[in-house]
Design a protein that fits this description.
260 residues; alpha/beta; four-stranded mixed beta sheet; binds acetoacetyl-coenzyme A
Amino acid sequence: MDYINIIFTVDDAIATITVNRPDRLNALNPQTMEEIGHCIDVIRSDQTIRCVIITGAGEKAFIAGADITSMVTMSGFEEKVFAERGLGVLRAFEQLRIPVIAAVNGYALGGGTELALACDLILAADTARFGLPEIKLGIIPGFGGTQRLPRRVGLLRAREMIYTGDMIDAATAFSYGLVNHVYPAASLMQEARSLAAKIARQAPLGILQAKAAINAGIEMDLDSGLRFETEAVGLAFSTDDKKEGMTAFLEKRDPKFRGE
Ligand code: CAA
């Protein structure tokens, strides 16, 4: 697929998706969602990729939401198709076997905050702004915001953000537990790459099992989650990487994980 609205690169086992519509503040139109969806398919079928970073082009925005210009003319049916595609793409990020880092370099509004919420980790520039302003457009969040935001920041904070549509700054997002770290805007991508590289060096099948256990367990009661973890750790124990990791520790050297 030829990409028009995104830039997709793979370097040193790290895939980077840059939404590239800076004149529209990287708003997500149907074409952009198709392109991101295609990238996920490519990433899923490439075992050499160990971590993904998603960010926005330019200095102003990560993603300023779904593209209002596209949505204003959509019929109810077209909107349903668009929302289902958006939900599917975000769910695909969550269900990738490898971690996804959102590097939020500016406005993350509506679908932008919702996409970040579907990522494993969120790093924010000190210039970042988060919000679900859909209520101001007469609608409500449609890419999972009413479900993922309360799970992440708690009911009271999520209700206030969704009912008012107000934005929060990066420091507030950090205090809400919505982002992992806040960095000066100029160093955000360097920090994101450094974190991605650290994850990429770990045992791939261990990362896969850890991600599966965390994502499944958060929706389960504790006993079910603990049973899931026991199965996952059993699978991790059956890998060559477990032998390599423990042997390397005892031999006082760095492990060389191969994902086997
Ligand atoms: N869709 C389409 N175009 C957008 C856009 C969006 N979500 N966000 C910004 N743009 C466009 C603006 O219309 C403007 O275009 P023109 O130059 O042609 O006028 C350009 O990007 C630059 O934006 P502004 O001039 O508005 O920049 P600003 O600095 O004054 O304001 C902003 C920045 C506060 C982010 C403002 O652009 C804004 O409020 N954008 C809309 C945010 C929004 O409501 N997002 C939610 C969308 S709905 C959604 O996401 C549904 C869902 O759940 C999936």
